[in-house]
Amino acid sequence: MSSLHHPAPWNVRRPPRAEGKNVLVTGGNAGIGYFVAEQLAGTGATVVLACRDTARAEAAKVSIRARVPGAHVRHIRLDLADLSSIEASVDALRLDRLDAVVCNAGVLLDQPPRRETSEGHELMFATNHLGHYVLISWLAPLLAAAPASRVVTTGSFTAKSESLDLDDLQSTRDYRPKRTYARSKLAQMLFGFELDRRLRAAGSTTLSVITHPGGALDSLTPSRPPVRLRTTGERLRGLPAGLLLQGKEAAAWPAVRAVLDPSVRGGQLWGPRVFGIRGLPALEPVQGHLADTALAARLWTATAALTGLDPSSTLR
Ligand SMILES: NC(=O)c1ccc[n+]([C@@H]2O[C@H](COP(=O)([O-])OP(=O)(O)OC[C@H]3O[C@@H](n4cnc5c(N)ncnc54)[C@H](OP(=O)(O)O)[C@@H]3O)[C@@H](O)[C@H]2O)c1
């Protein structure tokens, strides 16, 4: 059993083998999600990239296969901003069980104006929170079919200092892009903790684990042709930031550990150990508003009303 003070030993360069496991990674074509997918493929797991753009997903597959000979990797189309399309994406998985899903995809707009999806939801809240909520709702039977499966939610350190306005979840009254983003990440984290409480109450073996990647920059991230190339100038300009922040290869470590480490428990929060910003994955305390169970339950109810779905009914 792990504890805050005595986490089990973990080697980020040699995670355990995971042949025969099926893992879905949203946004596995770029950034942190790409490296989560690459590192999981390196364990022998079957990795499905869930991406909105087929050409970018193909590029990620090419790169993973070049680095991991014999990698089991494929992709499905998933647009988290189009909630009505997500059921069909899950059907396209053609799996009878899913051992883990890494809810990694995310969008951050740092400039106004406020943008809405075609279904009328604020874009960041819809993509980051509602899309993953709907995805988990449709995935629930596949997760229940795998023993001790895991839902891994990607939060953010920005969520820790943000509060949720349940009366303005979609930032219609007051839109400030960075705050709306941080609130969408907080909603995701609260959902992840509430999901675990509901899984435990239902007697399920599925775990819901929350991770966050710290602060990760493309300029500190190694090249992965044809996915992304880092120029020498970019690498040099990024050097000072490297004292504080990290690249996306390292930012992937908490999620990979959350998928694979047998000592990880449901309801835990994992992030980089140095100030929660960079470094090896470590267990973090769940405190403050992240531990607000009443708030999380109210968010769940509000999300079910917005999406017309409730994974509670299929949790097993
Ligand atoms: N980087 C950081 O410092 C940091 C800090 C805290 C939390 N995070 C979180 O970590 C996660 C990954 O961040 P990142 O830095 O790797 O971001 P990134 O490089 O911008 O990659 C984002 C990924 O999400 C995908 N995506 C965006 N909208 C989507 C949609 N509607 N449907 C499906 N996929 C969609 C993107 O696909 P396309 O390639 O098609 O655009 C891309 O694969 C996000 O959840 C982010 O909030 C990052």
TrEMBL record:
Alphabetized, the UniProt keywords read: Oxidoreductase
Q: Which GO terms describe its molecular function?
A: oxidoreductase activity
Is Oxidoreductase among this UniProt entry's keywords?
yes
Pfam entry (one): adh_short
The name on file for this protein is SDR family NAD(P)-dependent oxidoreductase
Q: Which organism is it from?
A: Nonomuraea montanisoli
